[in-house]
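Dear H.,

Thanks for agreeing to be a second pair of eyes. The structure we're designing against is below in token form, covering all 366 positions.
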């Protein structure tokens, strides 16, 4: 009985909500058109009423006409002020936004189209404020990231020029590492710029997962000593089944895997182990990829922030000076595929899981 009563109550609320939405066009509080229509009706009603009074009284018609005009002007001014006030407020806020102040908001105390416009305006202002803040943070972070390798490289070269140190292999190796770090940062920024502008098309194809990932890991092993000082971390590949086939843009997927491996190696303990694990997904030719390390892991509060530009977890602060862009590039490359990336639960270290949808055209055909 309780269930049926609850169901009947929901149906009544649904009918009432549909009725209320249906009368919106004639509700002067929820529609500007209805408000203007009500203004015309009130004006005509006042004029008609005063005309009837004039016909049944000794008052001259000129006086009645004057009173009708005054009454109509008062009502029109009242309605016009109510309609123009939010527009004036938005105009004033837009002027401040043109000067670079995106903190201004307008009141949303109406239920009509102007109230919806005010809400949309506030959301737009919030987005612009966030974009402006992000731009300033990006400039500050890029300046900081560029300053560090440039200052280190300059110090090494000045020591060589001044004769403080010799241009021996050790000194040149330090200069090379700083140059490579600077190059990685510039490459990451270019990748982000291309991704932001949508000029990176996908060229997806079928490929065998095992030989592809084996090649990525081999390349990572060859560049460990160049990309960072960690050469003691062991890379392990686990693909099941071994003849697994997936569908993706291999160049963009290479960016994802390489950046995840680089991040995992940086945060691994001495003589640690990084595992790249691949499994087939539920859809045809889909791929579930995981990169696991044995490091300190990522706190739950930071698991979204690490995928932002220059985002680092608290455990990574003051680390080896990574660019803070690798995971952001990995996330956007995965987004290009329509996939998902995130930090998964792990009893030890960090586990980042990537899911690619595979060949979506087959899903559409079925």
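And this is the sequence the design step returned. I haven't edited it by hand at all.
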């Amino acid at each position: 009985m309780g269930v049926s009563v609850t169901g009947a109550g929901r149906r009544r609320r649904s009918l009432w909500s549909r009725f209320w939405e249906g009368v919106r066009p004639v509700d002067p509080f929820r529609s500007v058109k209805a408000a203007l229509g009500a203004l015309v009706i009130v004006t005509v009603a006042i004029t008609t009423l005063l005309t009837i009074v004039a016909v049944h009284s000794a008052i001259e018609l000129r006086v009645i006409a004057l009173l009708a005009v005054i009454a109509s002007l008062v009502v029109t001014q009242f309605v016009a002020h109510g309609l123009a006030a939010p527009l004036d407020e938005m105009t004033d806020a837009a002027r401040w936004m043109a000067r670079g102040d995106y903190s201004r908001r307008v009141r949303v105390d109406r239920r009509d189209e102007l109230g919806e416009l005010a809400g949309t305006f506030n959301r737009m202002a919030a987005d612009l404020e966030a974009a402006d803040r992000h731009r300033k943070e990006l400039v500050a972070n890029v300046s900081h990231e560029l300053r560090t390798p440039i200052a280190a490289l300059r110090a090494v070269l000045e020591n060589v020029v001044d004769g403080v140190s010799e241009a021996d292999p050790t000194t040149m190796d330090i200069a090379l590492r700083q140059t490579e770090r600077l190059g990685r940062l510039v490459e990451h920024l270019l990748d982000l710029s291309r991704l932001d502008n949508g000029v990176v098309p996908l060229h997806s194809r079928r490929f065998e997962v095992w030989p592809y990932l084996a090649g990525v890991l081999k390349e990572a092993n060859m560049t460990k000593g160049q990309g960072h000082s960690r050469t003691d971390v062991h890379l392990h590949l686990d693909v099941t089944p071994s003849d697994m086939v997936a569908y993706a843009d291999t160049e963009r997927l290479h960016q994802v895997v390489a950046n995840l491996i680089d991040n995992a190696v940086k945060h691994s303990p001495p003589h640690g182990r990084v595992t790249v694990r691949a499994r087939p997904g539920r859809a045809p030719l889909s791929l579930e990829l995981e990169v696991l390390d044995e490091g300190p892991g990522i706190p739950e509060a930071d698991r979204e922030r690490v995928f932002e530009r220059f985002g680092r977890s608290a455990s990574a602060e003051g680390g080896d000076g990574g660019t803070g862009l690798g995971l952001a590039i990995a996330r956007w490359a995965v987004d290009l595929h329509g996939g998902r990336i995130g930090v998964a639960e792990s009893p030890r270290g960090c586990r980042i899981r990537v899911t690619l949808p595979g060949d979506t055209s087959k899903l559409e055909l079925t």
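Two observations from my side: Confidence is low (pLDDT under 50) at residues 1-5, 23-28, 317-321. DSSP finds nine helices and seven strands in the chain.

Warmly,
E.
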